Amino acid sequence: MAKDVTVEIHDFVADLVIHRGPANFLDAETLARVADIGEQLVPGGDARVIVLSSEGKHFCAGADFGTGPLRDDRDRAAAELYEQAARLVGLQLPIVAAVQGAAVGGGLGLACAADYRVASPGTRFAANFTALGFHHGFGLSVTLPRIVGAQRALDILLTARRVDGTEAERLGLADRLVEDGSEREGAWALATEIAARAPLAVSAIRQTLRSDLPAQVRAALSHELQEQRRLWRTADSGIGIAASLARTVPEFTGR
What we know:
255 residues, alpha/beta, 2-enoyl-CoA Hydratase, Chain A, domain 1, six-stranded mixed β-sheet, three-stranded mixed β-sheet, 12 helices, 50% helix
């Protein structure tokens, strides 16, 4: 698993890369490795900012319901995944996510767990949960409204529509918009700018603005997981997930 996540530090910036391309599907083990590395990077150390990126076509296509734990024991796998998500939100250094390709479902949650998102016109953000027939997760109940506002978050969550990078910048979901293929370079430029500032001041200001965000996310994750467990047992969830795997349009029944 160690090879799936790597980190190198240059000029006070930690280059943290997930190597599970092309889709970079999420699982608890990979996210735990990200959190383990992140927790070792603390104020006053060799790194002042984290650049989080993924190798491959997509930043993160979310969870893979066709294979692995989320197919076999969904309740347990989701609980384990969200425990690691809570750890990620609690990391002490600012995180700049370089978002290429798709950031869908849990991938959107991963992107929103970062302090900043750098995207390109070709980037696609989507909360596809209503298209799958169940409740969103990964703390998006808290993080997404903080970023784009409550009404825009409601739009994104209920419609499950794709938001491209250009619209994402307009909504505030993307903090920087760069050319396609330059997402990592753009993230590095922003991270380097922050890393050059007084680190004690950066840390103090970030803590003031985030306040009790990690606690809020933990509480939201508990509720989200409870709702997911309930809705995974509905006919509509089975229809939505099956349609997604078959790449067909679901026809929901309301049951």
